[in-house]
Specification:
single chain; alpha+beta; Rhopdopsin 7-helix transmembrane proteins; 3 domains; 6-stranded mixed sheet; 63% helix; 12% strand; rod-shaped; HATPase_dom; two-component regulatory system; HATPase_C_sf; membrane
């Protein structure tokens, strides 16, 4: 008992000092601060009397009841919220004042203990109502401290009631714990005024509510079953009470947990619960294009907020709820260092900001939704890429047809006429045959040039004539240019597949072109190497680099599409020392790799200023 008394004094008076000094400058009303000071100080004085029978102890108990009524009615804003709680507080104070005036004779009445239960229950319900209809996030955090500590005290007393039934634990042994429990509301009120945002108490509050509700259910069951079994023997009464308590306790724990979750979170679940909902909804849909709407719906249902939207750049992918009037908090959805989308969440009606628990839920959902959104985006891009491929193929066919019909066809028709004229002149011994032969030679040269231009558009001839490394060197290594490009290649002696050469040539050329246009780099390194059954490439520069959540442009999408067409991959990232790294790989066919020579040659080409 002495240790508990010392602990109460060591906690109470520093709290009073802190409230008296920084408390008036905090965002709380003077009435709330004074009420908490009186409550904490009275608890400290009450703890000096171990029996609680002295006149000072009885006066302190009355003052504590009045202080609790005032503080619970106006904490923390200074206004009674809800309005009816002011009448409850007034009635509680009137009862205590009447008892003092009557010389504590009201305490002998049978209803005296029940008025505590009724008054404190209504005051607690008022704080719960304030918690559910809070004005802003800070006030809700302040009320959390009150509810968490007060309900811990109630749950503690209920547990002590259960363990002292039928002498299981002596009541005297619980007196130090009861003394410490009585100080908890004052501690919670003080912390709510001084440091309301120092801890996230949602989980604590949920567990306290669950344990408190379960303890109340079990203790009520014990009292009712003991009364019902009063006619049995002592042993029979114990068995009846134990059986009823065990049955009700086992069945009631789950219900108490659900009720606590409903009170603390409302419609909002904890992060893991929201992720479970998201996983179930994603698994129920086979259409990847509905993923953005699914993510939005999960967040809206989990938080109960007014508005949730998801955007990709300036494009709105999905939204839930009306357009917001107030601020919207943005959360990035990042996958492999790239911002896939942005989730915007507006607070609930009557709130100005999201709570810390809200932010935790949205952040977890965004992290989990990143791969799903990336997959949905990749599917959309794949469909669009296929459509563009079909359109490009038809446009290329149209262009080739027009070229063959409008250019080459007349050219070959002219060649045919010239050949026929040459034959006639030659048979007749006409001297004009020489001029016709010269014109025919010129027309053949023109036709040959036109055919070469068509072939070059279809595939750069340098790839077939000299190979990938030489073609790239001619294309990207320009002496005296900035940035200075250095090409290093470790490839097999055998030629690469034509599709791989063409894709690597165009991807690396596009990457180097992006460096020249956007990176402001001084040097650029291109590395090519054959690794097993695939060709790996990397283009690194020392320029400005990409941001932590880069949105790819047309060039990057084009490079990724070229790699994906062959079953490869391409990534865009920031280098360890700055700059940008474009890295990827392309698969090599089995037939090609089987005939590859084991000897490796190293080719290094760089521009010299």
């Amino acid at each position: 008992m002495l240790a508990a008394q010392i602990l109460v004094q060591a906690v109470s008076w520093p709290l009073v000092a802190m409230l008296a000094w920084p408390g008036p400058r905090a965002r709380a009303s003077a009435v709330a601060v004074v009420g908490v000071v009186v409550l904490v100080g009275s608890n400290a004085l009450l703890a000096t009397d171990a029996t609680g029978e002295s006149g000072l102890a009885r006066v302190c108990a009355a003052v504590i009841q009045c202080a609790v009524a005032v503080v619970f009615a106006v904490y923390p804003s200074g206004r009674p919220v809800p309005a009816w709680i002011g009448w409850v507080a007034g009635a509680g104070i009137a009862v205590q004042v009447t008892n003092l005036a009557a010389g504590f004779r009201l305490e002998a009445q049978p209803w005296w203990s029940w008025q505590y239960v009724l008054t404190w229950s209504l005051l607690l319900w008022g704080q719960l109502s304030r918690y559910r209809s809070r004005a802003d996030a800070r006030e809700r955090q302040q009320v959390r401290w009150v509810l968490a500590t007060f309900l811990t005290m109630v749950a503690g007393f209920l547990v002590m009631t259960i363990v002292t039934v039928d002498g299981l634990v002596a009541e005297e042994a619980t007196e130090p714990a009861a003394m410490l429990l009585l100080t908890l509301p004052g501690v919670g009120l003080s912390l709510g005024l001084l440091v309301p945002t120092s801890a996230n108490l949602d989980r604590v509050l949920r567990w306290v509510l669950a344990i408190g509700g379960w303890s109340l259910l079990v203790s009520t069951t014990i009292a009712l079953s003991a009364a019902a079994a009063a006619g049995l023997s002592a042993a029979g009464t114990r068995w009846v009470v134990a059986g009823c308590a065990a049955a009700v306790g086992a069945a009631g724990w789950r219900a108490a947990g659900r009720l606590a979750e409903r009170v603390v979170y409302g419609r909002r679940r904890d992060p893991l619960g929201a992720l479970t909902d998201l996983d179930g909804m994603l698994a129920a849909h086979h259409d990847a294009t509905v993923v953005p709407q699914t993510v939005v719906r999960v967040i809206a249902q989990a938080l109960g907020v007014e508005r949730v939207e998801i955007r990709a750049g300036d494009a709105l992918l999905a939204a839930e709820g009306p357009a917001p009037d107030g601020p919207v908090t943005d959360f990035p959805v990042v996958y492999r260092g790239e911002r896939v989308a942005t989730v915007g969440v507006a607070p609930r009606r009557g709130e100005q900001t999201l709570t810390a628990a809200d932010v935790a839920v949205v952040a977890r959902v965004c992290a989990y939704a990143g791969p799903a959104l990336q997959g949905a985006r990749a599917l959309v891009e794949l469909v669009e890429s296929r459509a563009r491929t079909v359109l490009a193929r038809e446009e290329e066919r149209k262009r080739l047809r027009a070229y063959l019909h409008d250019d080459l066809a007349p050219t070959f028709s002219g060649l045919g006429l010239s050949a026929a004229a040459l034959e006639q002149f030659a048979l007749a011994g006409d001297a004009r045959a020489i001029a016709v032969a010269r014109r025919l030679a010129d027309e053949l040269a023109t036709a040959t040039r036109q055919l070469r231009e068509v072939a070059y558009d279809l595939r750069p001839p340098a790839l077939d004539d000299r190979g990938l490394v030489a073609a790239l060197s001619d294309r990207i290594v320009v002496p005296g240019s900035t940035p200075q490009v250095r090409l290093t290649a470790r490839l097999d002696d055998a030629r690469l597949p034509a599709a791989v050469e063409a894709a690597a040539f165009r991807i690396v050329s596009e990457a180097v072109m992006n460096v020249r246009r956007h990176a402001a780099a001084r040097s650029c390194t291109v590395d090519l190497r054959a690794a097993g059954d695939r060709l790996e490439f990397a283009v690194a520069d020392d320029g400005v680099g990409v941001g932590p959540a880069v949105t790819p442009g047309v060039g990057v999408r084009s490079m990724r599409e070229r790699a994906a067409e062959l079953g490869g991959d391409l990534t865009l990232s920031r280098g360890p020392d700055g700059g940008t790294i474009v890295a990827g790989w392309l698969p090599l066919t089995t037939a090609t790799t089987a005939t590859t020579a084991t000897a490796m040659t190293t080719v290094t080409t760089e521009a010299t200023p």
